[in-house]
Amino acid sequence: MDNRPIGVFDSGLGGLTAVKELLKIMPHENIIYFGDTGRVPYGSRSRETIIKYANQDATFLKSKHVKMIVAACGTVSSVAGSLGDNLGVPYTGVLKPTTAVAAAASKNKRIGVIGTTATIRSGSYRRELAAIDPGIEVCDRDCPLFVPLVENGFIADNEEVTRLVAQRYLTPLKEAGIDTLIMGCTHYPIIQHIIGEVMGSGVTLIDSGRETALYCAEILKEQDLLCSGKSDGDCSFFVSDRVEGFSQLAEIFLGRDVKHDVSHVDIDLY
Length: 270
Hints:
Layout: E1 6-10, H1 16-25, E2 31-35, H2 47-62, E3 68-71, H3 74-79, E4 91-92, H4 95-105, E5 110-115, H5 117-122, H6 124-132, E6 137-142, H7 146-151, H8 160-175, E7 180-183, H9 192-199, E8 204-207, H10 208-222, E9 235-239, H11 243-254, E10 262-264
Parallel strand pairs: 1-2, 1-3, 2-9, 3-4, 5-6, 5-7, 7-8, 9-10
Helix pairs in contact: 1-10, 4-6, 4-10, 8-9
């Protein structure tokens, strides 16, 4: 058993979807979350910049003596695939857990993938799905406006701007006849209701945050690293930009007051 915290990072708020699922699955675990809100979004950055940012984020979490690191970021998982090689603690991104579930869920072997521009450009989901089953047909689309819409609070189910953007992005995937859609960025489940309505009931949505949280729990159990406590764990949040803006939206996503648990960190020191 191991009472050290789980470290989770993302470019901003999206990784909170993974934190929310981790809290449901393993309520006794302590979690440290870093949101790189000062440099969001990662999806439009160069490969070199994304790798640099990911290494800084992971180094910060290691300084907090975490027992596992979760890159709750589709862009990092796709572009910085070797991040976990030298961390010294168990590591997972969102790519492998998500593609495994999507491949099992699809009946017609037509799977859609939506993600940031960097994620789609990398071809990571195509390669991973082809490795699972070469017969899978992948239709992918970058959705660069989704992250800023989420980060700026355009997340209500009746938000007309977000719905119009979703229709513009998703209509070609719907017309391609996919039966499964990977939301390859952890920001996207926050607007899952809108995405689901646009795609229709015949398409199964795969939540990368949820599948990654389930995979994290499996790894901790296999390696005997689960927390031994019986009371609810603690969550600490760190950001690289304003604490106030993060706190307001984080409370909406997590359904809890986080004001006193959020701190600023100068990520350039790591």
